[in-house]
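The freezer alarm interrupted the setup, so I double-checked each line after restarting. Inputs confirmed:
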Amino acid sequence: MKYIDEFRDGALARHLAGAIAREAEPTRHYSLMEFCGGHTHAISRYGIKDLLPPNVEMVHGPGCPVCVLPVGRIDSAIELASRPGLILATYADTMRVPASKGSSLLKAKARGADIRMVYSSADAIRIARDNPEREVVFFAIGFETTTPPTAVAILDAAALGLGNFSVFCNHVLTPAAIANILESPEVRDLGTVPLDGFIGPAHVSTVIGSQPYEYFAEEYGRPVVIAGFEPLDVMQAILMLVRQLNEGRAEVENEFTRAVTREGNGKAKALVAEVFELRRSFEWRGLGEVPYSALQIKEKYRRFDAEARYGLEYRSVADNKACECGAILRGVKKPIDCKVFGTVCTPENPIGSCMVSSEGACAAHYSYGRFKDVPVIAVAAP
Amino acid sequence: MTNVRSDYVRPVDFKHGHVDMTHGGGGRAMTQLIAELFLREFDNEWLRAQNDSACIAMPAGRMVIATDSHVVSPLFFPGGDIGSLSVHGTINDVAMSGAKPLYLAATFVLEEGFPLADLKRIVVSMAAASRAAGVPIVTGDTKVVEKGKGDGVFITTTGVGVVPDGVHIAGDQAQPGDAIIVSGSLGDHGVAIMSMRENLSFETTIESDSAALHGLVAAMVAVVPSIHCLRDPTRGGLVTTLNEIATQSRCGMVIRERDLPVKAQVSAACEFLGLDPLYVANEGKLVAMVPPAHAQRLLATMRAHPLGRDAALIGEVREDPLHFVQLDTSFGGRRNVDWLTGEQLPRIC
Amino acid sequence: MCLAIPARVVALPGPDAALIDIGGVRKRISLALVEGIAVGDYVIVHAGYALARLDPEEAERTLALFAEAAALLEAPGATP
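Predicted 3D structure, all chains:
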């Protein structure tokens, strides 16, 4: 597959690994956070850790929109789906996220809720058109990559005059999450989680461009390298970060030049701006309330807002006490630091969202990397 | 004086008719459906006897019995249908113990309203599969459930066979050092099914690989009777099967990504849907574990058979107290390939 | 929601629609988020929409960057 296979070449990987090993200063420790869930998955799936020298460490960040969706929002989705006659259209990723009282969308479906997995927001529009006598709600989640498709769906619904379609909006923003990590007490004050640099998300950046990250590089003095999705992209980005750190630079660099420009996708951004506005605050699983980090539907399109249409009341639900998802999402702890990892909490029976999504740090480690932990006793986090 | 008229029995309307509750009622309608469809298409000496059971002669050896239910949706897909699948699937389960499959039984649970044209298409397909494999369907049963209580049709097939003395092929027989061999390309069936699912529809020329493997198995066992394990990786794909055997045999395994046979289109479709071909169902492939000394000879035998042309040596069994199955990625790292969690839902993210 | 893949546009069957091909598998997607796409272009596809056109020259340049790492290595590096 063109533009995929060439970026997975094993021989080039070994050379890049060699370059990283040579250029990483032996007395220095490099702590790099990959923000995007897709990168977490690529790192685990391709065993990139095996190819890095021991002083270059990857810290997994909260870039998985499923992982950061709070339990209360899933509860609301289940509430919607349980309304008689209502069809809930959702991306497959949300189905197994644990909600309150041991429930989940998958279990609600088993109990009779009409929940349909879709590949695209356009499919949700089609379901609404095909079922004019039924209410259809699209469960919209995702960072800036997935927001434009939702915007298009709402504009299509408006153009078609669809009276039975609405969106339960849970779109969140990448720069706000990065800011929160950099602001979190551990990082800013205590310096417990040293984060030297970031690998910037791939496809979010095709939409928002590289420009929004310039603020972080300047304000917090951390280099950001936007990386494509394939494993060679990730390794090249790691090499670029190592070089910046060695040279004392803190700039935004773009490794994913084949799809990302500084300005991003103007057309997509305009469509999003037409339909959505910032929420003052939004709860993120593991990060608490984060200001100006999420989107809601504008007044002009409020008739397509499921929260308004169905009078949904959000109830915040605390995570299971043993669950360390919050600390893991901030990079403060590793999956093996969590007492319930691999025992009570497994992909089959996830307690927290880091274990549900295949891109969550816990699921990725459990599925791909757990064979390495076995001779090692988990080290307690500071 | 009355004229004695011979009864006119209107034939079953296979073009426009539908299953209704009388077809399961045990009365004339049911008998007629069975006669005009099942007995006619499956036709053999046992069915002609029209008993509720079949009396069969079993050759000497240990008897093997296997059973499978088939609930595939959609019922018709590129490369097959629920009928041919149900014949191949059970023949394969019997064959995986090294046994020669001899007879099949088939039961049908039909939903009220199911089109008889579709039922006939399925039964004709089953008959063809059964005849091609040389394994007759000698007895069966039909039930009808009310509309809404069944997904069109569910089929269960049970098969019996005989395994010759001296052959002991089972999931707990894998030994450290054994070569792991697959008979051909992975993931074809699952991708063919996915391509028909409404919300995922994509165009592809991939067909299900549904096939009866007993001929291939016979050829393999004839050349290497000391094969340790055979299994067909159906739901959950190759990795699920490897994990099952690893657990049963209390060992670990390592397989190599670059040696896995996967068709380009299957790879592309999986990429698209966020699936891993290692976990996607196959219906006409097998995985074998064999002492390393015999690996090359077994490979050559498989490749000489039409169903084993793309056979490949993909890895080794090894000592591992944790029974992990691991993958050496083409990229250069190593990772676990663990049990599947739940059903493989196509990822978006 | 990060799963997005590069695909080749093989036809433009309608306004804002494209038929894409990846390794022989084809699907219809929306071009509502991009402009100026022609048959033969590669686009990044996510959740049924093209998000961006893939720039082939930049792709070549990136691949060349990877290969540079090989050129720079004279002595074998400390490959783990």
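Quick read of the result. The longest helix of chain C spans residues 56-72.
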